[in-house]
Amino acid sequence: MDWSAFRKLNLSAVRTPIHIIDEGALRRNMEILSRVQRESGAKIIHALKAFAQHSVFPVMREYLPGATASSLHEARLAREEFGGEVHVCAPAYVAEEFSDLLELADHLVFNSASQWETFRERTLASKQTIECGLRINPQHSEVKTRLYDPCAPGSRLGVTAEHMTEKLMRGLSGIHFHTLCEMGLEPLVRTLEVVEKKFNKWFDRIQWINFGGGHHITRPDYDTDGLIELIRAFRQKYGLTVYMEPGEASVIRTGVLVARVLDVIPGSPPIAMLDVSATAHMPDTLEMPYRPDILDASEPEERSYTYALGGPTCLAGDAIGHYSFDNRLEVGSLLFFLDMSHYTMVKNTQFNGVRLPSIAIADTKTGRLEVVREFGYEDFRARLS
After folding, report:
1. Which pLDDT does position 173 carry in this prediction?
2. Which domains does the chain have, with CATH numbers?
3. Fewer CB near the terminus (10 Å): N or C of the chain?
4. 3 state SS of 299
5. How distant is the alpha carbon of residue 350 from its chain centre?
6. What would the DSSP string read from start to end of 231-254?
7. Cβ burial, residue 124 (10 Å; 0-12/13-18/19+)
8. DSSP state, 15?
9. What was the pLDDT predicted at 63?
């Protein structure tokens, strides 16, 4: 991705902060996912939990057969805005919402034996034809950050092998595992070996298996050819339909979050106050944690001018980090936070009443920029009472 192309957009009349996604970059990712589907025989559906900017769903559904949701609202968004297959997998379903889910879902995955037993008869008696699956926990960890590890000890996600029974399998047509986070191919290879060893006794009872998300398929160093061969071999061995549901892979390297400097406070180093908040607009920088990249910025002291970057909320820890730049930052300077499409918009909050970033679609080759949504006071007021 040529991130510098975002600087060529005319942002003089655009209010910051703003998310900008490049349609051309999005299509490049979609073409990679489409190739994997075409050559492996798998079905790849988009996970809304990572990215739900529905203004670009018309582009995505040219390539992908559907979307996967983790709640009633996401399922409705998938049905109304994405179309195609609607898969739902949630840690627990709300009884009062379940009838609505039955109207929306093509696939329903249950997280526990008790959830499946609670809702089995209602689901099987539904007027809709719904494929039912069970989430499994292979108890094999590849994710190093415990917060994001579905297989960490004491995990609430998925059924372990010792709790699988003939009685439990009645009415199920598939199994689902989601154990990865921002991973390449090798962790999937190792995980799949464990899944086969622990659960293959049930493979002749089902029609499909979902490899879940966390696969960085569109990353430049991902072994796409290896993935295609892995899926081909698995399908040939077991005769099962294979699903994958990446979220980040759909939109990594497609968008930026543009911030503006509001103030510069003297110090060592000086502090540049931005209209972008770590806690409200980029929460994973604190949760993961990670240090976001900024266009034309480096580690502290590597360039001429080093600044601490802070957000606009009153949280003392609303700090983004220390960066160095070739030129001084001044009030009004624009900063471009890179790779900010996934897990940003979907996690935004309005803590302190800070304005949510606007959302825009761009074509960085032609300079076209369309602001598709802006947020204001009424959005803040409407979510409270």
Report:
1. 98
2. 3-17+255-340+355-382 (2.40.37.10), 23-251 (3.20.20.10)
3. C
4. coil
5. 20
6. HHHHHHHH--EEEE--SHHHHTTS
7. exposed
8. P
9. 98
Q: Which of 169, 343, 173, 314 is nearest to 250 (CA)?
A: 343
pLDDT for the residue numbered 28: 98
Query: Is the separation of the CB atoms in 84 and 65 below 8 Å?
Result: yes
pLDDT in tens, 160-207: 999 999 999 999 999 999 999 999 999 999 999 999 999 999 999 999
Residue type, 105: A
- Per the document, the length of the chain is 385
Residue 373 CA to residue 112 CA, distance in Å, equals 38
In the beta sheet, which residues pair with residue 324?
298, 306
Tokens 């699956």 correspond to 133
Nearest CA-CA partner of 294 in 242, 350, 339: 339
Residue 52 token pair: 């739900």
Q: What is the C-alpha to C-alpha distance for residues 233 and 40, in angstroms, rounded to an integer?
A: 9
Element (H, E) at 152: none
299-356 pLDDT tens trace = 999 999 999 999 999 999 999 999 999 999 999 999 999 999 999 999 999 999 999 9
Per-residue DSSP letters for 323-368?
EEESS---TT-EEEEES-STTTGGG---GGGPPPPEEEEEETTTTE
**Could you tell me the pLDDT band of residue 359, with boundaries at 50, 70 and 90?**
very high
Residue type, 318: D
Amino acid (1-letter code) at residue 32: I
What's the rounded Cα separation, in Å, for the pair 276 and 43? 37
Neighbours of 383 (CB within 10 A): 9
CB 89 within 8 A of CB 66: no
Q: Which of 63, 113, 56 is nearest to 84 (CA)?
A: 63
